[in-house]
Specification:
InterPro entries: NAD(P)-bd_dom_sf (IPR036291), SDR_fam (IPR002347), Sec_Metab_Biosynth_Oxidored (IPR052228)
Organism: Frankia umida
Strand order of the largest sheet: 3-4-5-6
Keywords: Oxidoreductase
Number of domains: 2
Strand content: 5-15%
Radius of gyration: 17 Å
Distance between the termini: 40 Å
Protein name: SDR family NAD(P)-dependent oxidoreductase
Pfam families: adh_short
Structural class: alpha/beta
CATH architecture of the largest domain: 3-Layer(aba) Sandwich
Length: about 240
């Protein structure tokens, strides 16, 4: 039995993928934060914009936690199960060739917080996560697909009340965004068996892996920093 585990699967592209997999006969495990939307699909968008810096209950900056750290923990945590799969693939709607600068000295935006830039940095971190994941699990047979779908007409999850500027931008994005069904159709060809270990896709087009977005040294630097963040969390909560 084929199995798909989809985070952010109660809305947007995640929901579109979940519905496709269900129709194809997969066992689908959907993870989300909105119980109402979860009930609807049984019968969250992974991006969640915040105009002001916000900490999670664990004391970690929300963009870093949701858009990067959760994916780090989730993907590495599933390695044991993925190794046993016939066609193990991690699909991450994260970076895909982004060149956003990384604030190595302040990766959780303790100073000068900017919501859009913080999300952009998190996308860049996901590119490096893909590189590090494959480096750490080189013998696993797991493939990694990182995808930037572009502007898609999802629910644009975020604060209940956006700032005036952000609200205007969200309305514009809703108007020009491509259908979820198109974004899902564009990524499906890259998920079948026989692909490369690392595949980067942007709006349905495969990217060359030649830029510094895929730098192994930076990927390992990020891994060390991430482990330091987790170790600090363990010290604070033990």
């Amino acid at each position: 039995m084929k199995t798909a585990v989809i985070t952010g699967g109660t809305d947007g592209i995640g929901r579109g993928l979940a519905e496709h997999c269900l129709a194809a006969g997969y066992t689908v495990l959907v993870i989300g934060t909105n119980a109402t939307k979860g009930k609807k699909i049984a019968s969250l968008a992974a991006r969640y914009h915040r105009s002001a810096r916000t900490l999670t209950a664990d004391g970690i900056e929300s963009n870093f936690a949701l858009f990067y750290l959760s994916r780090f923990l989730f993907s590495h945590g599933l390695v044991g199960s993925l190794r046993q799969a016939e066609n193990p693939v991690v699909l991450n709607f994260g970076g895909a060739g982004l060149t956003t600068p990384i604030r190595w000295h302040d990766i959780q935006w303790e100073t000068g917080y900017h919501g859009v830039r913080a999300m952009g940095q998190a996308g860049r971190l996901n590119d490096l996560l893909a590189v590090d994941f494959l480096d750490r699990h080189a013998d696993s047979g797991i493939r990694y697909v990182i995808n930037l779908p572009g502007v898609v007409a999802t629910s644009f999850a975020g604060e209940y009340e956006y700032s005036a500027v952000t609200a205007s931008q969200v309305e514009e994005l809703r108007a020009i965004g491509r259908p979820v069904s198109q974004a899902v159709a564009e990524i499906l060809p890259f998920l079948g068996p026989g692909g490369d270990r690392l595949t980067a896709v942007r709006e349905g087009r495969r990217l060359a892996l030649e830029s510094n977005a895929w730098d192994l040294i930076e990927a390992r630097r990020l891994r060390d920093l991430t482990q330091a963040v987790l170790a600090d969390h363990d010290r604070r909560t033990s």
